[in-house]
Amino acid sequence: MSSPWQEAQEPVLALSVVIPIFNEAGNIERLHKELTAALRGIGRDYEVIAINDGSNDKSAQLLNAVQAHDQRWHIIHFRRNFGQTAAMAAGFDAARGEIVVTIDADLQNDPQDIARILAKFDEGYDIVSGWRQNRKEPFLLRRLPSALANRIISRSTGIHLHDYGCTLKAYHFDVVKGVQLYGELHRFIPALASQMGVRVAEVPVADRARRWGSSKYGFGRTFKVILDLIVVVFLLGYFNRPLYVFGAAGFLVGGVGTALSAYLTVFKLLTENKIGDRPLLQLAALLMVLGVQFVSTGIVADMIMRTYHESQHKPIYYVRERRWSKPESQDPSPESAEAGANA
Length: 343
Ligand code: UDP
Ligand code: MG
Prior knowledge:
Elements: E1 13-21, H1 25-42, E2 46-52, H2 59-69, E3 73-77, H3 84-94, E4 97-102, H4 114-121, E5 127-132, H5 139-157, E6 169-172, H6 173-178, H7 189-193, E7 200-205, H8 221-238, H9 242-271, H10 279-311, H11 327-330, H12 334-342
Parallel strand pairs: 1-2, 1-4, 2-3, 5-7
Antiparallel strand pairs: 4-6, 5-6
The chain binds uridine-5'-diphosphate and magnesium ion.
């Protein structure tokens, strides 16, 4: 089936709300009601993009029913369950709003909080994150790992947020179009976007109990988050020129190895002692080989980054705004310049 949908190059309305949905049948009608009330209250032009992430309950029918009588809702049905990150990525691709708000379908976030998030956004931020100050979830299995993760992500990315895991966040159009998401990376968007140069703020939001159904995640998520964290830290730290980082490590390690073997050589030549059975010799050889490996890994990583940037036309810089003067006003008097050239 053909569809009129096309990815927007620039925003055409004020607000897009993106909702990932996996088996939330019992929440959808209430979600529609609460969200509509909240968004009407805000009074901006909006669209809602609901992504049905391969639900196998009645979510699909219920979403279609909502869309049938509410023109502002658009539904994307995935062929199977691809995960929350993929669902959000599909929403971001489709979004046409200047501000893109993400929210969970289970009503753990309160749609009424969107108004305060937008108010903050209007102060001139690119990302405004919800911060669940009174979380309702179990301490040991949910809040403790997430507090630790928030600390580590904040430290290692320089974007300090108390609650990376809160889905209720608002992003500028440029941010959602600019970040590439894989795995479970949706919770790291503010960190990934730090690459672009973003202004980030936090707003305390309510955390409510899930309305219906159960959480889609267990403790296993913690491990995925840790692995994702490693990737994010790597991506951020080594992004443009991995060779600089690997190369520095390579020079350091290789340098120590070379110094050690120089010492051993001098030692042998001056004292006529045997050095063949010295553990230091093995260490020196090991360090020199490691040094070469670091440098060559750096070169390979550099080539991969090149492919990444060039194949996707990824810029190495991001512009917040362009203020372009008209050609006439840029060049005060082209005639006089020409006259000067003729003279
Ligand atoms: N979700 C999704 N695909 C998945 C898992 C979850 O779209 O594979 C949606 C889910 O329907 C909900 C949101 O992501 O709207 C957050 O999921 P959940 O409430 O289970 O996470 P928790 O609140 O327990 O962190
Ligand atoms: Mg939830």
